[in-house]
Design goal:
The complex is a heterodimer of chains A (about 325) and B (about 250). Chain A has about 325 residues and is an alpha/beta fold. Chain A contains eight helices and 15 strands. Chain B has about 250 residues and is of the alpha/beta class. Chain B has one domain: HUPs (Rossmann fold, 3-Layer(aba) Sandwich). A nine-stranded mixed β-sheet of chain B has the order 9-8-7-10-6-1-4-5-11, sandwiched between helices. A two-stranded antiparallel sheet of chain B has the order 2-3. In chain B, helix 2 links the parallel strand 4 and strand 5. The termini of chain B are far apart. Classes of the chains: A alpha/beta (about 325), B alpha/beta (about 250).
Amino acid sequence: MVLVYAESPRGQLKKAAFEAVTFGKKLAEQLGQPCAAVVLGTTQSDPGELGRYGVSRVLHVADERFDILDSQAATQALAEVARQVGATTIVMSHTSTGKTLAGRLAVRLNAGLVSGVSGVASVESDGTLVVRKSVFSGKAMAEYAIVSPVKVLSLMGNAIRLEVSGQPVSAEVLTVSAPAPRIRVRAVRTVEGRVPLPEAEIVVSAGRGMKDPSNWGIVEELAEALGATTACSRPVADSHWRPHHEHVGQTGIAIRPNLYIAIGISGAIQHLAGVNNSKVIVVINKDPEAPFFKAADYGVVGDLFEVVPRLTEAIRKFKAAQ
Amino acid sequence: MKFLVCISQTPDTTARVAFTPDGKAYDSNGVTFIMNPYDEWYALVRACELREALGGTVVALHVGPAANETTLRKALAIGADEAVRIDAEATSSAFTARQIAEYARTEAFDILFLGKETIDYNGAEVGAMVAEHLDLPYIALASKLDLEGNTAVVERDIEGGVEVVEVNLPFVVSAAKGMAEQRIPNMRGIMMARTKPLKVVPAVPVEEHVRVVKFTLPPPKAGVKLVNPEDMDELVRLLHEEAKVL
């Protein structure tokens, strides 16, 4: 049995959970095993909706003790559910939630763990599972063999395409024992109205070439036209032109959108490390020698203050014609 | 207060990435190694700041061979009081986590700090594993950490924002950008580091559940296609028809 932990931070089942279910269902097919999803805590939508992503059983531990992320309580719950359903492979998302839980669950279950998986390379006849992941901050790929009987995997965001392949099911409500949470939540501060960077499919990012934070309007407008999330380079975040949570790169957030548009960013190796898993990279820079062009799919050599508004206009025209 | 900071060593951020001919291991020939930035800039510096404010001891711990002691000396120069080296190659997250946990059991640490991940294998696994071995609470991706008596108030990065949580000591935390500012060791720190204690401890055996099959480098990019800056309709067309991302 493959058990997918479909995370629901702050009660919301989102893309990360749908991707994990899509991946878990396909892995289960490769292994010739059944697949179930488990949701911990109360949710704003019906967990049975996960059936759309191909899973025929959804287990719901509808207990508000799990509404906040306490790794000890959640690990206890997941271990108990895994035991109840006889799961030997557990899949979760490589998100802030997965990073908090995966290592802990692997130790609890005496399982081999590979985190940040982007795909399955092979399933061996002896039960060994070979998975792929990006390493060295996107500069190389690795294949790891998990040889233990029990396995834990966490899936990198945007690594696979969502697939709707089933119907909503009726969730089975479960109860599990768990220790009282030792972590208390005081407050949550989120940026409203934008897709978070790790989940974003299109990212518009700008760097020092913008010259001044007051010039960001043209970046915002391009992002708006594309339905994209905005990001920035490290020097921009360090000089407080933009908030730190927008910083992508080796020491910021690593992202893998379908489209990454870099505006006025030279493309230092540390910046590339955070973005070179993007499917398509567009670089706009007035310096034809900017190293970023070597990593780009499409390049525009020109003054960003002219090129960016022109691109925004072209996008709007394209969208209106669609 | 007693703080443990787990220090990893990684290739320099600008180091070329290459592998041995069999593809099984990183080719470290001619590569300069550094302290993992998340461990150094954020975890170690924050532990030192708390020690400066509240008193106590900062112990820097590293799992690695004797050649890596320069990294531990740097941690001492930045401000750690003592160093411990577990004498073994850090072969996997599971191995490293177990070594850290075995050592941590021998002393009553109030906070165990790690960086949020290493910049080479990008696992983000060790902190949660250590916490489980020691049955302690774990907070990952912390970008701010303050103490109010015996309670820590921690901001952890979540998708699209931060969550402010509180937890009683002791606990394990992984540090992300924002928790502290990088410190450059000064001459006095470097001199003092030479005489601070550095203890070597043998490793415990660990059964490995995961092995490397191979490392590969990504295929080189086909080359950039330049678009006339006057013609952004053409760029939109390429993104739609050729790249299929619009």
